[in-house]
Amino acid sequence: xxxxxxxxxxxxxxxxxxxxxxxxxxxxxxxxxxxxxxxxxxxxxxxxxxxxxxxxxxxxxxxxxxxxxxxxxxxxxxxxxxxxxxxxxxxxxxxxxxxxxxxxxxxxxxxxxxxxxxxxxxxxxxxxxxxxxxxxxxxxxxxxxxxxx
Length: 149
Fold this sequence. Notes:
Largest sheet: 2 strands, antiparallel
């Protein structure tokens, strides 16, 4: 989304569990906040859910290949998988999820004649609804049920 949100956010980052497709969304004012958002996400998984991140796949954007990020991966034992530049199809799961989130958010904004600065709220709502909706591929389980078991 190209507009600034209600809370002055310009960007978001999503984290997707590769097995269950459960998604988390974090909003950012600048792209360099991605490292802090990842640290927060990792802490959430470890403290509340008792899970460890084994690998992280991302594109080669500067926010994901900083020295801090590289050091953090090494210290935490996280395998870093970078996709080839200009080939977003190599990270198809995240690309499809981004497209779905943006599509639902834009549809909500357009359908209800809401101002564009509410894009972060609608994106958050889209992720929430997707996580709580039954999926045929998961045998009618929700993404949240598949993640939590």
